C-alpha cells in the first residue's frame, strides 16, 4: 500500500462528498428524479472508491473517486450556469453553502488523487517489475 494516511484522507473526503449529496437525495428525487438517481450513483460510487482505497486496489479507488469528483464539479458548474434539462432553478446560485462545501471536498479529492496516482506512476518507473529468474526444478 502506498501511503495509508493519504488513503484515509481520501476516504474521509469521499465520505464528505457522499454525505453532502446523500442528504439531498429525497429533494432531488422529488423535483428532478434523474438527478436524484445520479446522486444515489454518486454515493454508491464514493462507497466503492473508498473501499478500494483501503485495499490493494487503491489506484482504482483514486481513479473512480477522480471521475466522480470531476463529474460532480462539471455538473455543479452546468446547473449554476446553463442549467440541466428540467433543472434550471439553481442557475446563478453559485454561493449555496452545501454546494460550495461539496466543491471544496471534490477539489481536494481531485488534487489528492492526482498526487497519489502520479506518485505511484513515478515509483513504478523507478522500480520496474522484472520477471523472476528463479525456476523450480
For the record, give the distance between the C-alpha atoms at the N and C termini, rounded to a whole number: 33 Å
Output mean pLDDT.
89
Number of domains: 1
Structural class by sheet pairing and helices: mainly alpha
Number of strands: 0
Number of helices: 5
Describe the global form.
elongated
Percentage beta strand: under 5%
Tell me the series of helices and strands, N- to C-terminal: HHHHH
- Percent of residues in helices comes to over 70%
State Rg.
18 Å
Structure characterization notes:
The chain is mainly alpha-helical and 137 residues long. It is built from 5 helices and no strands. It has one domain. Helices cover 74% and strands 0% of the residues. The longest helix is centred in the C-terminal third of the chain and has 30 residues, at 97-126.
Amino acid at each position: 500500500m502506498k501511503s495509508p494516511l493519504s488513503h484515509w484522507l481520501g476516504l474521509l473526503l469521499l465520505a464528505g462528498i457522499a454525505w453532502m449529496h446523500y442528504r439531498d437525495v429525497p429533494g432531488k428525487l422529488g423535483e428532478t428524479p434523474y438527478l436524484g438517481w445520479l446522486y444515489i450513483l454518486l454515493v454508491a460510487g464514493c462507497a466503492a472508491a473508498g473501499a478500494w482505497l483501503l485495499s490493494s486496489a487503491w489506484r482504482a479507488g483514486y481513479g473512480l473517486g477522480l471521475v466522480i469528483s470531476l463529474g460532480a464539479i462539471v455538473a455543479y458548474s452546468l446547473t449554476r450556469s446553463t442549467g440541466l434539462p428540467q433543472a434550471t432553478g439553481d442557475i446563478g446560485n453559485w454561493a449555496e453553502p452545501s454546494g460550495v462545501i461539496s466543491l471544496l471536498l471534490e477539489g481536494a479529492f481531485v488534487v489528492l488523487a492526482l498526487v497519489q496516482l502520479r506518485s505511484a506512476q513515478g515509483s513504478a518507473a523507478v522500480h520496474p517489475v522484472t520477471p523472476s529468474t528463479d525456476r523450480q526444478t
